[in-house]
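Homework help board

Subject: predicted structure for assignment chain

Our instructor gave us this sequence and asked us to write out the predicted structure in token form, then describe one feature. I got the tokens but I'm not sure how to describe them. Can anyone check?
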Amino acid sequence: MTSFKNFTNRLKKNKLKKKERKNSILSIKNNIEELNDLLLQNFSKKIQESHPNPLNSFGRKCFSQSDEDGITFEILRRIKKINSGFFAELGVGDGTENNTLLLSSLGWKGFWVGGNKLAFEPPKNQKFLFLKKWITAENIVETFLEGFSHFKLKNIDLISIDLDGNDFYILEALLKSKIQPSVFILEYNAKFPPPIKFKIEYNPHHKWEEDDYFGSSLTTLNDLLSSYDYKLICCNSHTGANCFFIKKKFAKLFKDVPSEIDKIYSEPRYVLYKRFVHKKSIKLIQQILS
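My token output:
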């Protein structure tokens, strides 16, 4: 009986030790992650401060994926569009990290378009509209007209596009249809620095494979938008994922921004953020070489 009791006591002690070791490992892991976050925050701040474009120093995250919110806020402050306006965002994921949530919090009205279900039930009111649909170059103008009709709009102040694929062609369709806001926030493929011109081949059924086959280069976007009277003023330095364009009539408010595209471009830093890491795309390489 005593022997059995000793055996069970040893089992309990072993289980307790295993639990303590597991907790210790988890604690170490959490400490490493916290240290990594602090180092990353410090590194990102240094990148912002050392970037040749002063707009990057305003970058900060509120609701956006990285530092786009702070840049957006500064742009709107300069063009005097802080407290009211209309937005549209294309490609919104589950609705929890978006470039226009900040605008909505400022009192703006607008609509989202995306093929995914939101993580919440979208409100039904006169401030916000969610259109759940797959976006193509063929249906984008009709989709915007639906959003315009809901809000009784004739024009729009800001459009954000992050579709991980056909962004260039969607943008081109909007511009051709004279849907031209004061501000564009656009995802670009930072793997291609200026002066490289690149865009994926149009495929209305394209789905991002979490690789580097997506979108278009900064130069390609700049060439298109320049022909429609837009000026490139920033690329977010945190990840090198989004670029900002304004109507040229506002250019005098951004005299501190470099005129050279090389000094505005930000290289990709997805590797700093696990969720942004892209695997190699054979399709991309095939297109480059063909």
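Reply (TA_rk): Your tokens look well-formed. For the description, you could write something like this. The chain has a mean pLDDT of 87. That's the kind of observation they're looking for.
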